[in-house]
Write a structure and sequence with these properties.
Layout: H1 16-30, H2 46-56, E1 68-73, H3 76-97, H4 100-106, H5 117-120, E2 123-130, E3 132-135, E4 138-141, H6 145-162, E5 166-167, H7 176-182, E6 188-197, H8 213-216
Antiparallel strand pairs: 1-2, 2-6, 3-4, 5-6
Length: 220
Amino acid sequence: MKEDKFIEYKPIRFDETEMKKRSEEYFHFMNKRRSLRAFSPKSFPIEILENIIKTASTAPSGAHKQPWTFCVIEDKEIKAKIREAAEKEEYENYHGRMSDEWLKDLEKFDTNWKKEFLETAPYLVVVFKKSYELEEGDKKKNYYVNESVGLACGFLLSAIHNAGLVALTHTPSPMNFLSEILKRPENEKPYLLIPVGYPADNAIVPDIKRKELKEIHKLY
């Protein structure tokens, strides 16, 4: 190991009592996170969202390539174009592309092809994955791109919740229109479309439950 290329890691340490307390408190905090489709048009300083994105960028990535770009849309005209294109794809999804089983699974969310939140939310974050890097016209390989960008999106959602905001992971499929509207380079592909903002007054969410620990956890 070439020590001149490394720096000392300074861990954050807690005793076991504090570790248990912090882990339990964080679970209860994150367990309050919900995906919302009803947003308030009220805005907030862009610096908050920039801090959230910086937090997302601390996620691990294959070979530390950080194969992501976070595009933030505040412009009303661009948001309107995104909504129009998304609704066109969603209409096709709800009227033939989706299987009967898929539509049945969506019934508890009472969703449809109309996506007003894409214009109502003060900001849209479009996460792009970089299939490869472009350096002076040459292609450079990225590794575990989907896994890396997925981790970054998880960090992003946690940071959004931590700031007292709400979000929705929206995946109109196909999403190529996002590349066209935002004029992204050929090495970037849309991964998630995430409206971010405050919840609308009197917002409601489906009465659903998360799986219990025994359903998702096995100790060997």
